[in-house]
Design a protein that fits this description.
Largest sheet: 6 strands, parallel
CATH topology: Rossmann fold
Number of strands: 6
Strand content: 5-15%
Strand order of the largest sheet: 3-2-1-4-5-6
Number of helices: 9
Radius of gyration: 17 Å
Shape: globular
Helix content: 25-40%
CATH superfamily: HUPs
Distance between the termini: 57 Å
Structural class: alpha/beta
CATH architecture: 3-Layer(aba) Sandwich
Order of helices and strands: HEHEHEHHEHHEHHE
CATH class: Alpha Beta
Protein backbone atom coordinates (compact mmCIF):
# COMPACT_ATOMS: atom_id res chain seq x y z
CA UNK A 1 0.00 0.00 0.00
CA UNK A 2 1.30 3.44 -0.90
CA UNK A 3 2.10 5.87 1.94
CA UNK A 4 1.62 8.90 -0.31
CA UNK A 5 -0.79 11.40 1.26
CA UNK A 6 -3.44 12.46 -1.22
CA UNK A 7 -4.50 16.06 -0.72
CA UNK A 8 -8.30 16.43 -1.03
CA UNK A 9 -9.23 18.45 -4.11
CA UNK A 10 -11.14 21.09 -2.12
CA UNK A 11 -8.03 21.74 -0.02
CA UNK A 12 -5.65 21.76 -2.99
CA UNK A 13 -7.83 24.33 -4.76
CA UNK A 14 -7.52 26.72 -1.80
CA UNK A 15 -3.73 26.44 -1.69
CA UNK A 16 -1.73 28.68 -4.05
CA UNK A 17 0.45 27.11 -6.77
CA UNK A 18 3.76 25.80 -5.44
CA UNK A 19 6.55 23.34 -6.10
CA UNK A 20 8.42 21.00 -3.79
CA UNK A 21 11.02 22.65 -1.62
CA UNK A 22 9.63 26.19 -1.83
CA UNK A 23 10.26 28.53 1.10
CA UNK A 24 6.89 30.09 1.90
CA UNK A 25 5.99 32.81 4.36
CA UNK A 26 2.53 32.68 5.91
CA UNK A 27 0.90 35.99 6.81
CA UNK A 28 -2.46 35.45 8.49
CA UNK A 29 -5.03 38.12 9.26
CA UNK A 30 -8.49 39.47 8.69
CA UNK A 31 -7.26 41.98 6.04
CA UNK A 32 -10.16 44.24 6.99
CA UNK A 33 -9.08 46.12 4.95
CA UNK A 34 -5.80 45.02 3.35
CA UNK A 35 -3.32 47.87 2.99
CA UNK A 36 0.16 48.84 1.85
CA UNK A 37 1.78 47.76 5.14
CA UNK A 38 0.68 44.17 4.43
CA UNK A 39 2.38 44.42 1.05
CA UNK A 40 5.48 46.11 2.47
CA UNK A 41 5.84 43.49 5.22
CA UNK A 42 5.53 40.71 2.66
CA UNK A 43 8.10 42.16 0.27
CA UNK A 44 10.42 42.88 3.20
CA UNK A 45 10.10 39.26 4.37
CA UNK A 46 10.64 37.91 0.84
CA UNK A 47 13.95 39.75 0.68
CA UNK A 48 15.26 39.36 4.21
CA UNK A 49 14.21 35.72 4.67
CA UNK A 50 15.02 34.68 1.08
CA UNK A 51 11.50 33.31 0.56
CA UNK A 52 10.00 32.14 -2.72
CA UNK A 53 6.45 33.21 -1.91
CA UNK A 54 4.30 34.79 0.78
CA UNK A 55 0.76 33.49 1.22
CA UNK A 56 -1.82 35.81 2.73
CA UNK A 57 -4.22 33.64 4.71
CA UNK A 58 -7.40 35.70 4.88
CA UNK A 59 -9.19 34.44 7.97
CA UNK A 60 -12.98 34.13 8.30
CA UNK A 61 -12.63 35.75 11.76
CA UNK A 62 -10.14 36.40 14.55
CA UNK A 63 -10.90 34.69 17.90
CA UNK A 64 -9.18 37.55 19.74
CA UNK A 65 -11.13 40.33 18.02
CA UNK A 66 -14.70 41.56 17.74
CA UNK A 67 -15.86 40.44 14.31
CA UNK A 68 -19.11 42.44 14.08
CA UNK A 69 -17.64 44.89 11.55
CA UNK A 70 -15.82 42.26 9.52
CA UNK A 71 -16.45 42.62 5.78
CA UNK A 72 -17.55 39.62 3.75
CA UNK A 73 -14.71 37.21 2.96
CA UNK A 74 -15.01 37.57 -0.81
CA UNK A 75 -14.70 41.35 -0.59
CA UNK A 76 -11.59 41.07 1.57
CA UNK A 77 -10.09 38.51 -0.81
CA UNK A 78 -10.63 40.72 -3.84
CA UNK A 79 -9.24 43.78 -2.08
CA UNK A 80 -6.22 41.78 -0.88
CA UNK A 81 -5.40 40.68 -4.42
CA UNK A 82 -5.60 44.29 -5.61
CA UNK A 83 -3.28 45.48 -2.84
CA UNK A 84 -0.77 42.62 -3.14
CA UNK A 85 0.04 43.39 -6.78
CA UNK A 86 3.09 41.11 -6.80
CA UNK A 87 3.33 37.64 -8.38
CA UNK A 88 5.23 36.41 -5.32
CA UNK A 89 2.33 37.27 -2.98
CA UNK A 90 -0.60 34.86 -3.14
CA UNK A 91 -3.99 35.34 -1.45
CA UNK A 92 -5.77 32.29 -0.02
CA UNK A 93 -9.06 31.54 1.76
CA UNK A 94 -7.68 28.21 3.04
CA UNK A 95 -8.95 28.69 6.59
CA UNK A 96 -12.56 29.06 5.45
CA UNK A 97 -12.21 25.92 3.30
CA UNK A 98 -10.70 23.68 6.00
CA UNK A 99 -12.82 25.41 8.67
CA UNK A 100 -10.00 26.15 11.08
CA UNK A 101 -10.54 28.74 13.80
CA UNK A 102 -7.06 28.79 15.31
CA UNK A 103 -3.62 29.30 13.77
CA UNK A 104 -2.27 26.08 15.27
CA UNK A 105 -4.87 24.06 13.33
CA UNK A 106 -4.06 25.83 10.07
CA UNK A 107 -0.34 25.25 10.51
CA UNK A 108 -0.84 21.59 11.42
CA UNK A 109 -2.95 21.09 8.29
CA UNK A 110 -0.39 22.74 6.02
CA UNK A 111 2.56 20.84 7.48
CA UNK A 112 0.76 17.51 7.30
CA UNK A 113 -0.56 17.89 3.76
CA UNK A 114 2.32 19.83 2.21
CA UNK A 115 5.34 18.39 3.99
CA UNK A 116 7.67 19.23 1.07
CA UNK A 117 7.29 22.97 1.65
CA UNK A 118 9.28 25.02 4.15
CA UNK A 119 6.94 27.36 5.98
CA UNK A 120 7.72 30.47 8.02
CA UNK A 121 5.04 32.21 10.06
CA UNK A 122 5.20 36.01 9.69
CA UNK A 123 3.75 38.39 12.27
CA UNK A 124 4.10 42.01 13.31
CA UNK A 125 5.63 43.02 16.61
CA UNK A 126 2.15 43.96 17.86
CA UNK A 127 1.14 40.31 17.49
CA UNK A 128 4.24 39.06 19.32
CA UNK A 129 3.22 41.31 22.23
CA UNK A 130 0.00 39.30 22.60
CA UNK A 131 1.22 35.97 21.22
CA UNK A 132 0.93 34.35 24.67
CA UNK A 133 -2.85 34.80 24.37
CA UNK A 134 -3.07 32.74 21.18
CA UNK A 135 -4.48 29.23 21.36
CA UNK A 136 -1.58 26.76 21.88
CA UNK A 137 1.03 29.41 21.18
CA UNK A 138 3.87 27.21 22.41
CA UNK A 139 2.84 24.51 19.95
CA UNK A 140 2.77 27.07 17.13
CA UNK A 141 6.34 28.07 17.99
CA UNK A 142 7.30 24.40 18.07
CA UNK A 143 5.79 23.66 14.66
CA UNK A 144 7.11 26.41 12.39
CA UNK A 145 9.90 29.03 12.41
CA UNK A 146 8.61 32.56 12.97
CA UNK A 147 9.64 35.98 11.67
CA UNK A 148 8.56 39.01 13.69
CA UNK A 149 8.55 42.33 11.83
CA UNK A 150 9.28 45.34 14.02
CA UNK A 151 6.44 47.88 14.15
CA UNK A 152 7.53 50.92 16.17
CA UNK A 153 6.50 51.89 18.82
CA UNK A 154 5.70 48.23 19.65
CA UNK A 155 9.34 47.09 19.82
CA UNK A 156 9.92 47.18 23.57
CA UNK A 157 6.48 45.80 24.44
CA UNK A 158 6.93 42.95 21.97
CA UNK A 159 10.42 41.92 23.10
CA UNK A 160 9.42 42.17 26.77
CA UNK A 161 6.30 40.04 26.24
CA UNK A 162 5.84 36.65 27.94
CA UNK A 163 6.19 34.78 24.64
CA UNK A 164 9.38 36.58 23.60
CA UNK A 165 10.92 35.92 26.99
CA UNK A 166 9.91 32.25 26.97
CA UNK A 167 11.35 31.77 23.46
CA UNK A 168 14.43 33.95 23.90
CA UNK A 169 16.94 31.12 23.63
CA UNK A 170 15.56 30.18 20.19
CA UNK A 171 16.00 33.66 18.70
CA UNK A 172 18.37 33.92 15.73
CA UNK A 173 20.59 36.97 15.22
CA UNK A 174 19.06 39.28 12.64
CA UNK A 175 22.02 38.80 10.30
CA UNK A 176 21.07 35.08 10.10
CA UNK A 177 17.51 35.81 8.94
CA UNK A 178 18.07 34.22 5.52
CA UNK A 179 18.62 30.88 7.28
CA UNK A 180 15.34 30.90 9.19
CA UNK A 181 13.33 28.79 6.72
CA UNK A 182 15.93 26.03 7.03
CA UNK A 183 15.78 25.88 10.84
CA UNK A 184 13.89 23.35 12.90
CA UNK A 185 11.27 24.94 15.11
CA UNK A 186 11.32 26.54 17.57
CA UNK A 187 13.32 29.30 15.88
CA UNK A 188 12.51 32.97 15.34
CA UNK A 189 14.02 36.24 14.26
CA UNK A 190 13.12 39.87 14.96
CA UNK A 191 13.51 41.97 11.82
CA UNK A 192 14.06 45.72 12.02
CA UNK A 193 14.31 48.40 9.35
CA UNK A 194 10.77 48.56 7.97
CA UNK A 195 9.33 51.97 8.86
CA UNK A 196 5.86 51.85 7.28
CA UNK A 197 3.33 51.63 10.12
CA UNK A 198 -0.26 51.43 8.85
CA UNK A 199 -2.99 49.40 10.51
CA UNK A 200 -6.35 48.07 9.38
CA UNK A 201 -7.95 49.60 12.47
CA UNK A 202 -6.80 53.06 11.40
CA UNK A 203 -8.30 52.53 7.94
CA UNK A 204 -11.81 51.76 9.18
CA UNK A 205 -14.59 54.21 9.88
CA UNK A 206 -16.54 53.96 13.18
CA UNK A 207 -19.32 52.03 11.41
CA UNK A 208 -16.81 49.45 10.16
CA UNK A 209 -16.73 50.65 6.56
CA UNK A 210 -13.34 51.13 4.93
CA UNK A 211 -12.06 54.64 4.54
CA UNK A 212 -11.94 55.75 0.93
CA UNK A 213 -14.75 53.39 -0.06
CA UNK A 214 -18.51 53.80 -0.18
Amino acid sequence: MSNTFVVPRFVAQAVPPHTEGMRIGLLGGSFNPPHQAHRAISRFALRRLQLDRVWWLVTPGNPLKENGNLHELGARMRAARDVADDPRIEVSCLESVIRTRYTIDTINTLRRRFSGLRFVWIMGADNLAQFHRWQDWRRIAGQVPMAVIDRPPQSFRALASPAAQALSRYRLPENKAALLADQSAPAWVFLTGLKLNLSSTGLRNPDGSWKGTK
